[in-house]
Amino acid sequence: xxxxxxxxxxxxxxxxxxxxxxxxxxxxxxxxxxxxxxxxxxxxxxxxxxxxxxxxxxxxxxxxxxxxxxxxxxxxxxxxxxxxxxxxxxxxxxxxxxxxxxxxxxxxxxxxxxxxxxxxxxxxxxxxxxxxxxxxxxxxxxxxxxxxxxxxxxxxxxxxxxxxxxxxxxxxxxxxxxxxxxxxxxxxxxxxxxxxxxxxxxxxxxxxxxxxxxxxxxxxxxxxxxxxxxxxxxxxxxxxxxxxxxxxxxxxxxxxxxxxxxxxxxxxxxxxxxxxxxxxxxxxxxxxxxxxxxxxxxxxxxxxxxxxxxxxxxxxxxxxxxxxxxxxxxxxxxxxxxxxxxxxxxxxxxxxx
Amino acid sequence: xxxxxxxxxxxxxxxxxxxxxxxxxxxxxxxxxxxxxxxxxxxxxxxxxxxxxxxxxxxxxxxxxxxxxxxxxxxxxxxxxxxxxxxxxxxxxxxxxxxxxxxxxxxxxxxxxxxxxxxxxxxxxxxxxxxxxxxxxxxxxxxxxxxxxxxxxxxxxxxxxxxxxxxxxxxxxxxxxxxxxxxxxxxxxxxxxxxxxxxxxxxxxxxxxxxxxxxxxxxxxxxxxxxxxxxxxxxxxxxxxxxxxxxxxxxxxxxxxxxxxxxxxxxxxxxxxxxxxxxxxxxxxxxxxxxxxxxxxxxxxxxxxxxxxxxxxxxxxxxxxxxxxxxxxxxxxxxxxxxxxxxxxxxxxxxxx
Lengths: 353, 353
Prior knowledge:
The structure is a homodimer. The first copy, chain A, has ten helices and 19 strands. By secondary structure, chain A is an alpha+beta fold. In chain A, strands 1-2-3-4 form a four-stranded mixed β-sheet. In chain A, helix 7 (132-155) packs across helix 8 (162-175) and helix 9 (237-256) packs antiparallel against helix 10 (263-276). The first copy, chain A, is elongated and about 70 Å long. The termini of chain A are far apart. The mean pLDDT of chain A is 96. The A-B interface holds A 54, 94, 96-102, 104-105, 118, 163, 167, 170-171, 174, 195-197, 202 and B 54, 94, 96-102, 104-105, 118, 163, 167, 170-171, 174, 195-197, 202.
């Protein structure tokens, strides 16, 4: 059987869950490599993927016999079929953080499920540890992102708008064979950089501007995520203290990221250092990266997770001075046995264009 | 009180629902004009919007006293506050098609709700009939879309890729002051046009290609949606029968769209005419357009809705010949008392570039 499905089945078994309906398309892509509209059923004995005529041919040509997945066309499935899928299951799991209340009721009724149980992100938890192929895809996405940054340093000129820079990022990614953006790029210049979640505007880039660029692409479905804060013409003196503090903490965090490191402590170390200097870290220090640009684990003040070899996470401290400016520096990082490797490798010193 | 909220309150009252939690951001934007991360509570006596420090200032400066909305910062709300909001409500409604099962449980627990009831798209149903301001926004989005199409006819050249054309659409919309794309543009040339949901590829546009362009922008949050199928160099003879049949049905549907028309019959008329000619309509004939590009009502084979004055819907028949080509022609249409007005006005005859 497809090894990811086999692993999920083992995990379900360990929790005494006898069947599962998987409807989150990202989880389906992870488990069986299929991107289509459809639903994956793990019944007592079988793995069944139900899709429609638009995708049947593509799905059947992608899956192999060793996947052990039965593909059904939705139009051939009768009411009795639906009722029989889970008839030998004492309980059936579902994705409670993805499925709407209305779908939850629909599934229960259609499949005649008596005991429909929450699975607490069982697939998302499996996705936390990346295998070699996944790491290679993320590595490639990071490489394209580094190249894009280099290209932007030549491209960005005084007089351009933030939106023009954001468009160039998208154009470059497409040209370089990425699958597209991992998320809507942030290009925030001057005072706009003071908002952590700024959206590119028609603001014109001017001499003396600071520019925060937070961007990433997808490669074979896997994301990269990098932020650099650069300067136009010269670096304003008032910014230096903040920039140095953010950079110091970003680098220190890289030193502290290793197999076994505690995410809550990583966050606290940066937040404490910022507070000593009368600043604060108003968002998480990082998050997992994979098929989703934000996935488990969060590196924040609440949940405690121990980093493990082959997790991929971001390291992205930021300080934001309201009405003035902001600085954020971010890498996508692979956790290794002995430490970590930054997969995005662009320069983090002062870059003046 | 804000008239849209008042109307919703009246509708809830008619259904004996005494409170409601609104979490779908599009519904919140519709009801109170706010785009932020937050949640809107209609309690027995008050309208409460809960958001966080990032948005508080913007929200408070947008709302006026006549809106009658209390704005709360999430960090100031205690457990007791949550429990008191609905303490005088016999029942509380929620958006069962938006809220995940996990959120549903979280809300019930946090707000101590005993009787949490489904509201069957009550806000979405209110959104079906557009007011003057909404229509003006959609009209403006359609005008920008028409202008973009005119621009594309000059812009598209043999040797360009589909992706380049898609980028130009986005660039043009940004330049013209639209809020951005209403949805990912479809630019499907040659055989790619045979897939109704094609994604722009690196395929190069060639002499003799047919190109289906399905695109739209947002203006003040309101969407446009238009499709035109054009030709490069010349029109292949085999395409003419299909193009003529699609265009005839698109125009006939415009004749049949008026206050009182039955959506199921509209669909059937086109589907029957296609079947007479050995083709079929593999998707809905149309859908509502507003803050979402796809909203109620669907014009398809299943649900029967009577069109009403000031609904805005699409009219988009299409025929797709596998492995060969496809033709779709689509307008965004305003239903009037006596008939309808196409808000997208671009030429639908044979356009050869």
